[in-house]
Specification:
Blueprint (H helix, E strand, L loop, with lengths): L6 H4 L12 H13 L5 E5 L6 H12 L15 H7 L6 E5 L6 H11 L9 E6 L6 H12 L5 E7 L7 H4 L3 E4 L5 H15 L2 E2 L1 H10 L4 H14 L3 E2 L1 H8 L4 H13 L2 H13 L4 H18 L12 H11 L4 H17 L6 H13 L1 H16 L5 H18 L3 H8 L22 H7 L1 H5 L13 H6 L6 H9 L6 H15 L8 H14 L3 H9 L1 E5 L2 E6 L2 H9 L1 H11 L5 E6 L16 H11 L2 H8 L9
Parallel strand pairs: 1-4, 1-5, 2-3, 3-4, 6-7, 9-10
Antiparallel strand pairs: 8-9
Length: about 625
């Protein structure tokens, strides 16, 4: 028991070439050593467990090595390397920034910097988790970090570079460490298994590499925990049970059920997962990752982005072949939206079930969208349009037909005589009623003014006298040009519309304005605005809409609804229509409602009628009215 060493320490790299996944860092440091351009301050930044402290120790070891090799790796046999291996070197000082983060700790460090090395060339100071230092400690460290003695080298390590003062960053050479890929972690674990005599399934090691999230130290810790629980054999099932990970086999079954629209199988599988103790959110995350892998498997250039063993990649390639790209993209979008709204859902189980039900029948939505797109590209032509376009085609066939007899038979199959058969085809005359064109014109359908009575000048006899145009392009252009009614018809229609609207002046009707007002109120999403508009009292005076409201708050609400007046002005096509709002006190029960829409003259006359002595008072005190009536 006492001699046991965890794998993270036992297999910790002691040379630059043993550091995995950080080749850009190790090669740069070795080139600096080769050229003799070693800086006095370094900052190693990156996620946890990727080799920051390890590289700092190797660098401290190699710069004091008495006999480094040609690749500038430490020899491991000299006195300095031996002392370093036994953690007894006087030239290397490691300090934890989390527990030594005060100013007095930095002062102690500065005192050690002043003492030259007892043996070797350099004194190396490694400060781990340097971002934990306080601002005053950083400021006390600035001068020493900028101009240290020739024998002092500082190596700072941190996982949160953004917390370090810019004045510290500007004095260091910054090296950013990357996360270690699952493939590299799996290869390292396989080598350790060979040395330890452990048999492990490739899928189990890949699962450990993915679970480590790019940290080699985390992967080795998981490996030690699983290997200690098993008898020299690491299986995929053991890793699943030990780490409490949702098996990817469930996601293959989910996708198969989606493709076959088997909703009972989807709900049953979800119930099985929940009964095993997994959270519903893990289903969302795992299913999103699985569908993302299926999307990557559909293209040869992105297959390499899929983590997992060759067996798993083969299954993903097979299932991705049965999934369309539209299905995968739509499903990923639905899962992403569900993940965003999941924390705010009260019934999280129902929220997840609804998402899975949508994914089950998502093919129908995709097919419906495709069908709708095809219908838009090839719209169905109405029977009337077909008849109008077919007539020029027949005329063109008759024009090129050299046989007059066949022409006569085709134009008059019943043997009847035609009055225009001897005329050229281009000047063939047929009746074209104006009313039919006005009905098919889209411009006339959108006009708020109804079509007036039939124009005597557009009678059937006059229409028959006009020659018929046979050219297809000209025919289509004529169909798009509406027939404009005569001016006297329009004036009569406007007058009739004004009579129907009520007692309005110049076509502005009170009843129509009320209808527009109430229709707008019904469409308002806010209940308060809707209630305010419904309680308003409306009157019409010339081109002004007079509104009576009960409070200033209601007036402000109505004034903010500018779209209401725009609707009234657009209906009458008169933008001179204005709005006047008056706030009056609400009448109590039994009290008659006073007319708020009174001019100053009307108010004066009413006051004189109620009190005739007011006129004598005005003359007695020689008072003058502000406005002479």
């Amino acid at each position: 028991m006492s001699n046991y060493v965890v794998s993270a320490r036992k297999y910790r790299p002691s040379r630059f070439e043993e550091v995995l996944g950080q080749e850009q860092i190790t090669s740069t440091l070795k080139n600096a050593l080769r050229k003799g351009q070693l800086a006095h301050a370094f900052l190693f930044s990156g996620p946890r467990g990727v080799g920051k402290t390890t590289c700092a120790r190797i660098l401290a070891k190699v710069i004091n090595c008495e006999q480094p090799n040609e690749q500038f790796e430490p020899c491991g046999t000299c006195d300095s390397c031996q002392a370093f291996a036994k953690n007894a070197s006087f030239n290397v000082f490691e300090m934890d920034g989390a527990s030594n983060n005060k100013v007095e700790h930095i002062h102690q460090l500065v005192e050690k910097v002043r003492v030259p090395p007892y043996m070797g060339k350099y004194k190396v100071f490694i400060i781990d988790e340097v971002h934990m230092l306080t601002t005053t400690a950083f400021n006390a460290f600035l001068k020493t970090l900028e101009e240290p003695p020739d024998y002092a080298i500082f190596i700072l390590a941190t996982t949160e570079k953004h917390k370090i003062l810019p004045t510290i960053l500007s004095r260091c050479q910054i090296y950013d460490f990357n996360r270690i890929g699952p493939d590299i972690i799996v290869k390292q674990l396989q080598q350790i298994c060979e040395q330890e005599g452990i048999t492990a399934e490739e899928e189990a090691l890949y699962l450990i590499g993915v679970k480590a999230d790019g940290a080699m130290r985390d992967a080795l810790s998981i490996f030690d925990r699983i290997s200690s629980a098993s008898d020299k054999k690491i299986t995929y099932k053991a890793v699943i049970q030990s780490l409490h990970i949702l098996d990817f086999e469930h996601f293959f079954r989910f996708t198969d059920a989606f493709l076959t629209e088997n909703l009972p199988a989807v709900i049953t599988l979800l119930e099985e997962i929940v009964n095993k103790g997994f959270d519903e959110h893990q289903v969302l995350i795992g299913l999103s990752e699985h569908l993302r892998n299926l999307l990557m498997a559909k293209y040869p250039d992105t297959v390499g982005f899929i983590p997992g063993s060759e067996h798993t990649k083969g299954r993903l390639l097979e299932q991705s072949g049965r999934c369309s790209t539209g299905f995968l993209l739509s499903a990923l979008d639905a899962l992403n939206q569900a993940d965003v709204h999941y924390p705010r859902a009260d019934n999280k189980r129902l929220h997840l079930e609804m998402v899975l039900a949508k994914l089950t029948y998502i093919h129908r939505r995709i097919n419906g969208a495709l069908l709708e797109t095809q219908e838009k590209k090839s719209p169905v032509i109405s029977d009337k349009r077909v008849e109008q376009e077919a007539e020029p085609t027949i005329a063109r066939q008759e024009d090129h037909d050299p046989s007059p007899k066949q022409k006569e038979e085709s134009s008059n199959p019943a043997g009847q005589t035609s009055e225009i058969e001897d005329k050229p085809p281009v000047t063939e005359e047929v009746p074209q009623p104006v009313e039919e064109k006005a009905e098919t014109s889209p411009i006339m359908e959108e006009s708020p003014v109804k079509e007036g009575p039939e124009d005597p000048g557009n009678s059937l006899d006059e229409a028959m006298k006009r020659p018929r145009v046979i050219a297809s392009k000209k025919r289509k252009l004529d169909d798009l040009i509406p027939r404009i009614p005569r001016l006297d018809n329009l004036e009569s229609q406007i007058a009739e519309e004004g009579k129907k609207n009520g007692n309005g002046i110049k076509g502005i009707g009170l009843e129509k304005v009320k209808n527009i007002w109430m229709e707008y109120a019904e469409k308002c999403p806010s209940p308060s605005i809707k209630q305010t508009l419904k309680q308003a009292v409306l009157e019409i005076k010339e081109k002004t809409v007079l509104v009576q409201l009960g409070s200033q708050l209601e007036k402000n609400i109505v004034l903010q609804e500018t779209a209401l007046m725009d609707a009234i002005r657009s209906y009458y096509d008169d933008y001179d229509i204005s709005l006047s709002i008056t706030v009056v006190r609400q009448a109590t029960k039994g009290e008659p409602v006073k007319n708020p829409f009174m001019t100053d003259k009307e108010k004066y006359e009413k006051m004189v009628a109620e009190n005739p002595d007011l006129v004598n008072l005005i003359h007695r005190f020689d008072m003058k009215l502000v406005n002479e009536y």
